[in-house]
Amino acid sequence: MTGFIETTPNRHSVMEPGSSGSPLINSQKKLIGQLFGPGNTTLCPEHLCGNNPGLQRVSYGKFSISWTGNGALDSRRRLQDWLDPNGSNPQILDGNGIPTISGPSQVCDQGTYTVNIPAVDTLAWSAIPLNIVTIQQNGNSATLTRVGNGKITLSATINNSYSITKSNIQVGTAVPEFNLYRGTSGVSYGVVGVNYTFKAYGSDASTNDTDYYWTSPNAENEFPLEFGGRTFDFMASTPGDYTVSLSYNGTCGWSDPITKVFNFRESGLAFTLSPNPSSSTTTISITSPANARASTLLSASENLSFSTTSYIVKVIDAYGSIAYIGTKQEKQFKIPTSSFRNGVYTVIVSDGTNIYQNKLIVKH
To answer: Which residues contact 196 (CB under 8 A, 6 or more apart)?
Structure first.
């Protein structure tokens, strides 16, 4: 049985409900017992002893008794079955830290990874996806050799029972993200006859144009098959899907290309969102009326020759609820987003015949 010392600022160093099983540690930082209940309930009848924590006494189980379970037949009540499964019967047992895998976050050619445990019976290494690295094991360490490019998760299985992992290891050069832009706004598809820009982006993306290499196998008449630069302008003359690939010269040399497919549609009721992401308002600009060819963004101040058309505008959140609905007749108008929660929304615009939609990101 033990008491408490008055070391806390309010001098209330006491046992709290739910603390059963907490350790009693000696001056050598060894665990010698575990809490299992209150002590002198006559001297200290209240669980927390009110305003007299110095009166509280609590009971701890002796670790040597818990080691054998005081003769318990159930192995779940004997610590020796869990802490000394080999039966070496130590008098003092040093603990080990939580096993982790240490090593670099990127592998250009080779990288070495280590598990921080002194010795194990068996240790098996693996990496997912397959065929990106080969693994050569040496005790608690493994050397990874690059044979492909991509991100892997490295695993070490200890004694065929316990696995630890290290995720997001970049093998080879990572390719920056890229997208199709109309002005400063990213778009999910394009419209035939409208100027767009393909642009690579990311905090680690190089500002050197010679570090980018674009190709497109099905756009011979649209732009050169090979193109350098972080951005390039593009206008589709025919509708359809355009495959665009980007390779990048980064820390580990040239990457494998990543490929995206962009759809370009016949000009109809198309619109853009700016800014996107939005924090307070976003402007919807109708690029063309139905069945009219789009070439530039139309502003509300332009002298439009098209007949007046009413547009129904809806903004739908990720759960399918309507965040905004309204009817507009202008070619360019603003909708408020300050009351929207952060997230991705679907903006739907209809003129009664055509229905088009874009993604809107709200970020405050």
So the answer is: 180, 181, 182, 187, 190, 233, 234, 235
pLDDT in tens, 259-298: 999 998 776 567 889 999 999 999 998 876 533 333 333 3
- CB-based burial of residue 167 (10 Å sphere; 0-12 exposed, 13-18 middle, 19+ buried)? exposed
For residue 191, count other CB atoms closer than 10 A to its CB: 26
The model's pTM is 0.50
CB 94 within 8 A of CB 108: no
Which residue, of 145, 171, 197, is where some domain finishes?
171
pLDDT at 185 over 80: yes
89 and 13 within one domain = yes
68 and 25 within one domain: yes
- Tokens 């982790």 sit on residue: 100
- In the predicted model, what is the mean pLDDT of the chain? 80
Number of domains in the chain: 4
Which amino acid makes up residue 166?
K
For residues 286 and 267, the answer to whether their CB atoms sit within 8 Å is no
**CATH assignment of the domain containing 327:** 2.60.40.10
Q: Is the dihedral of CA 292, 296, 300, 302 positive or negative?
A: negative
> Does residue 260 sit in the same domain as residue 287?
no
Residues near 303 by Cβ (< 8 Å), separated by ≥ 6? none
- Listing DSSP states for 263-321 in one string gives EEE-SSS-EEEESSSBSSEEEEEE---TTS---SPPPTTS---SPP--EEEEEE-TTS-
Confidence of residue 165 (pLDDT cuts 50, 70, 90): very high
Do residues 114 and 102 make contact, with C-beta atoms less than 8 angstroms apart? yes
Alpha-carbon distances of 166 from 6, 49, 151, 244, 267, rounded to whole Å = 43, 47, 11, 32, 48
Domain, as residue range, for 115: 101-171
Sign of CA dihedral 266, 270, 274, 276: negative
Q: At a CB cut-off of 8 Å and minimum separation 6, what does 299 contact?
A: 285, 331, 332
Q: Is the pLDDT of residue 103 over 80?
A: yes
Distance CA 345, CA 336 (A): 13
Report the SS3 class of residue 84: coil
Mind listing the pLDDT tens digit for each residue in 231-267? 888 888 778 888 899 999 998 999 888 899 999 877 6
